[in-house]
Amino acid sequence: MKFSREIKTSLLVIFGIGFFYFGFNFLKGSSIFSKQKIVYAVYDEVEGLSIGADVNINGLSIGKITKIDFVPNSTKILVTMRIRADLNFSKSSSAILYEAGLIGGKAILIQTKFEQGKVIKSGDTLPSSTQPGFTELVNQQIAPLQQKLTSTLTSVDELFDGVSNVLNNQTQENLKTTLTELTRTVENINSISKKLDVLLSNNTTAIDTTLKNLASTSSNLNQISDSLAMVNIKSMLDKYNQVAQNLNQILEQVNRGEGTAGKLINDPKLYQNLDETLNALQTLINDLKENPKRYVHFSLFGKKNKPYNKEQED
Fold first, then answer.
1. Distance CA 49, CA 82 (A)
2. Closest CA to 34 of 95, 113, 87, 109
3. d(Cα 40, Cα 79) in Å, to the nearest integer?
4. For 65, which of 41, 53, 99, 122 could close a Cys bridge (C-beta 3.0–4.6 Å)?
5. Within a 10 A sphere around the Cβ of 114, how many other Cβ atoms?
6. In this structure, are residues 106 and 46 in contact, taking their beta carbons and an 8 Å threshold?
7. Which of 95, 87, 150, 100 is nearest to 125 (CA)?
8. CA 210 – CA 200 distance, rounded (Å)
9. Half-sphere exposure of residue 234: CA atoms within 13 angstroms, side-chain side
10. Helix (H, G, I), strand (E, B) or coil at 285
11. Chain segment 12-56, per-residue pLDDT in tens
12. pTM (2 decimals)?
């Protein structure tokens, strides 16, 4: 059976179209011979992500990015992914956009979760997040350093301006004058040091004698302190303490009314009796002075003495 040239040309064109379709889908990450699930993720920014980029789990490629476009009536980006149909992770798993390498662009990592009754199906939208890449991390670290460097350079400029303002012609002259005066001061100190050396060398004998006298005085003080140490001060203090204790005991007995002294001080009756006795004695002395004949007389005839009667006398 012979085919005409037109039929051969038609078959070649059909075969070419099929090969092109197969290759195009292969480059997009989809296969026409295997079953796949179509899932979505929404991001605020997808710079560096391109169609055909890998979708992987723990570094193993499970699919490709097939489409990147805006969410209708929004500025958010909708990413369409084709993944293997035999994967049964949960639809609450995260689709993390990360930097695959310095020159490898970006890819999507599925951070899987496994929950019964929530197996992902074609058409589901995964929660999304973005992981900073190496370049972003470097920029985050460099930005504070850049600010500090800028601040430091500004401070250095201000310092140089201040130094320039301070070190004007008048300040330089003052600085020179100060250095000259400082040199003179050092020279004077050296001169005084030389004079002290001469003075010490000329009075070495006198200084030695003074030191010997100080040593002798120190020895005498040591002897005096030794003599004071030999005095039994503790024994004297013990005796004084004993006398004080005895005196305290006597005073306590007197306060309690014990003994003659205690009764004399604390018994009011003794005081009253003594007072009455003194009053009677004073009356007797006064009467003796006023009427001595009543107490001293001579009787030749044996006259009897009259008893003392205060009323008759009055």
1. 15
2. 87
3. 6
4. 53
5. 11
6. yes
7. 95
8. 13
9. 2
10. helix
11. 788 788 777 666 666 655 555 557 899 999 999 998 899 999 999
12. 0.39
Q: Are 80 and 41 in contact (CB under 8 A)?
A: no
What is the full DSSP assignment across 73-115? TSSSEEEEEEEETT---BTT-EEEEEE--SSS-EEEEEE----
Q: Is 296 helix (H, G, I), strand (E, B) or coil?
A: coil
CA distance 84 to 105: 22
Phi, psi of 246 (to 5 degrees): -60, -45
Of 59, 1, 2, 50, nearest in space to 27 by CA: 50
Non-local CB neighbours of 182 within 8 Å, separated by 6+ positions: none
- Summarised one tens digit per residue, pLDDT across range 80-139 is 999 999 998 999 999 999 988 666 689 999 999 988 888 999 999 999 999 886 666 566
User: What residues contact 154, with CB distance under 8 A and at least 6 apart?
Assistant: none
